[in-house]
């Protein structure tokens, strides 16, 4: 009885948790990694390659959007059939 009533809050928590984790991952890559999208953005900024920085920013946004649309929206549609998307 409690689980169906809490599903909107659980899916919102999943979305927020993913976005916070994604930001932390990219920030950690920018600070201390030797590969990854965050590292690519950081290196592009250090050498003055603005196209590399822009590509990294677009990739970060695109991957986050794909996760949102392919994973979290499907979870909402499946478990919250009453909700209008």
Quick rundown:
This protein is an all-alpha fold and 85 residues long.
General description of the model:
With 85 residues, this protein is mostly helical. The chain has one domain. The protein is built from 3 helices and no strands. Helix 1 runs parallel beside helix 2, helix 1 runs antiparallel to helix 3 (50-79) and helix 2 runs antiparallel to helix 3. The longest helix is centred in the N-terminal third of the chain and has 31 residues, at 2-32. It is elongated and about 55 Å long. The mean pLDDT is 87.
Number of strands: 0
Q: How many distinct folded domains?
A: 1
Radius of gyration: 17 Å
Largest sheet: none
Q: What is the mean pLDDT?
A: 87
Number of helices: 3
